[in-house]
Sequence to fold (292 residues):
Amino acid sequence: MKYCLDLLHDSGHIGSKPISTPSDPSMKFHHDTSKPYDDIPAYRRLVGRLLYLNNTRPDITFTPQQLSQFLFNPTVAHHNAALRVLRYLKSCYGKGLFFPRNSSLTLQGFSDADWAGCLDTRKSVTGQCFFLVHSLISWRTKKQTTVSRSSSEAEYRALGSATCELQWIIYLLHDLHITCSKLPALYCDNQSALHIAANPIFHERTKHLEIDCHLVREKLQAGVMKLLPVSSQDQIADFFTKPLLPKTFSLLLSKLGLIDIYQPPACGGLLHHIEEEDNSSKDKSLLAAQVT
Fold:
């Protein structure tokens, strides 16, 4: 929270008007011919600090990642987009990840892609996130290294990347002597990608995906994970692939497990839950005393 407030103060936007989303859904970031921004070092410092803030604020991950592609020749439009992120942070500078206590450990991930999302290269944008129980522990927005010829290819490449991340998390939990109570699950909203993962025969049109197909299917057959479908409305990874409208942004944001310590309803609800746990413990103690 202090870092966020220092960022707003240093940039001179501590008194700026708040806004509900960090990016404009009607704007696509690309190299255009609009007016260049004069103070390039200032732009680089601002984007760098926003990227650092991504470590604890997954709700702003997409926009700084996109703006970091224009560090050498930013335009006024790019700088205004960075300032919009500051206006969003002004509305929720007390927001952060919450890690609730839970006895059973489950690992689940979400994978999605925005096909040909980059206007300059027509490369797709991969989005993924992973939850340990209900706690968000890993998230990523990244432009794919190659151009995908179909949305199915883009989704499957994102699925292959998410599979590697899932395997790494499993190895990490194993080193920490932590065992998941259920088989890790990976959710994808693209039926074609799910069919490619389940089909043992490589067709001519999927031959270029052979490496990713082998990777995902190998982990499925080894029982490392299970691959499950999810509706597009419930695809949390969509949060990391493109700018969203306010309603969709708020809906997916509520599923990331972020809590604003300055919002009375959230804080009150948390305190009420703690009080209920305390009262339940007291009642159990009194009951045990009466039995003895």
